[in-house]
Amino acid sequence: MLTVILCAAGRGTRTKLPQNKILCDLNGMPVLCHSLSAFMPFAGEILVACRKADEARIESILSPFPSARTVRGGATRGESVFRALKEAKGDIAIIHDAARPFVTQKIIKDCIESVKKYGSAVAALPVTDTVAHVSNGCVADMPPRNALYALQTPQAFYTKEILSAYEKAFEEGREKKFTDDSGVFAAYIKKPHIIAGDVCNRKLTYASDFLPAERVGFGVDTHAFAHQNEIDMGIARLNLSHIVLGGMVIPSNRAIEAHSDGDVLAHALMDALLSAIGERDIGHHFPDSDEKYRDADSMQLLSIVMEMVRIKGFTVKNASISVLCEQPRLSPYIEGMQNNLRAALCCENVAVAAGTNEKLGYIGEGRGITCYAMVLLQSNRR
Predict the structure, then answer these.
(1) Distance (Å) of CA 12 to CA 189, 226, 321
(2) Are 182 and 122 in contact (CB under 8 A)?
(3) How many other β-carbons are positioned within 10 Å of the β-carbon of residue 369?
(4) Phi and psi of 304, rounded to 5°?
(5) To which H or E segment does residue 121 belong?
(6) CA-to-CA separations, 238 to 107, 176, 230, 242, 247, in angstroms, rounded
(7) pLDDT for 179-206, tens place per residue?
(8) Does the domain spanning 214-379 belong to CATH 3.90.550.10?
């Protein structure tokens, strides 16, 4: 049988949240539920090591997980794990930080197989940054990174061996020396075996980690085509021989009424991006009452919006745009629009579609052009 020990007795003070971080909502359910759901298909029992103050709340969360129960945690992580190991019934124990809710089933399977083959398993990732020993605020030494790994959880062992290692550590009063289970195992049993971790298998540490991993934004914009008498009277401000869509100059015998260059596609896309990051629309950020934006290049304005997106910690994962107008014919320019937008959004997943309105309404009558845009953003903090 497999015993899963979820470490949930910490306070998570670095998050500065009002409660234990494993009880906080993440994408619609408590963090702990994500970890429980990941291990449920494999576990004969799940022991959640927790504080007395959180016990009642955690037990209510465990109700849909019949193989899970609480174990009173200790003052340190090591003490919590030791207490749980003494109650474990499985011959293999997998120990995992409950605050790592993105653990994959592949990692869990690899852990189990590694224990059966090598006697242990520690999820780890090669270090990609240059690391240094620092002394008095200065770099003292830089060890070669090709031999360095960042250790994660889960970490798995035969229960009797890891329990024996913890018993010896506590007997010798050395338990506080170790920051994870692999250290205890290495000190008293043997060198643990490494398996491939995952960059997504990160530990929730700060409040920003709880932001939604993805956000959706929707934008729509409409511009009217100017009548010839308005053009003759100088009422409509625009180029008379073309329109601009997605940064593409498209020949047209009708002009668009606009304060800027009238790029209705870029405008709808900007509104979609702004809505996804919780900002007000382009009318607020680039008002037509400001002469600074007269005849403005909308693709340059889009670059300003993209900087706002980056500052908020997001990148564009997908963008879908639909343009409705009767004339001019847009199909020869779709690829150019997509290429412009891919470069502006730093995203390959950009689709632009164009259609008519079957002669219906202001679009079908050739009096205006409307664009709809939807974007999917992904957090860089995940």
Answers:
(1) 31, 60, 42
(2) yes
(3) 27
(4) -65, -45
(5) strand 120-126
(6) 59, 72, 11, 9, 15
(7) 999 999 999 999 999 999 998 898 988 7
(8) no
Which 8-state DSSP code applies to residue 246? T
- Give the tens place of pLDDT for each residue, 148-167: 999 999 999 999 999 999 99
Residue 201's identity, in one-letter code, is N
Q: 210-214, 217-221, 268-272, 370-374: lowest mean pLDDT where? A: 210-214
Please check whether the domain covering 2-210 is classified as CATH 3.90.550.10.
yes
Which residues make up the CATH 3.30.1330.50 domain(s) of the chain?
A: 214-379
From 333, 310, 307, select the one nearest 321 (Cα to Cα).
Answer: 333
Q: Kindly report, residue by residue over 7-23, the tens digit of the pLDDT.
A: 999 876 666 677 888 89
Widest distance between CA atoms in the chain: 94
The C-alpha atoms of residue 300 and residue 69 are separated, in whole angstroms, by: 57
**Residue 222 to residue 323: CA distance in whole angstroms:** 10
**CA-based torsion, 230, 231, 237, 242: positive or negative:** positive
> pLDDT tens digit string along 287-298?
877 777 676 888
Whole-prediction pTM? 0.65
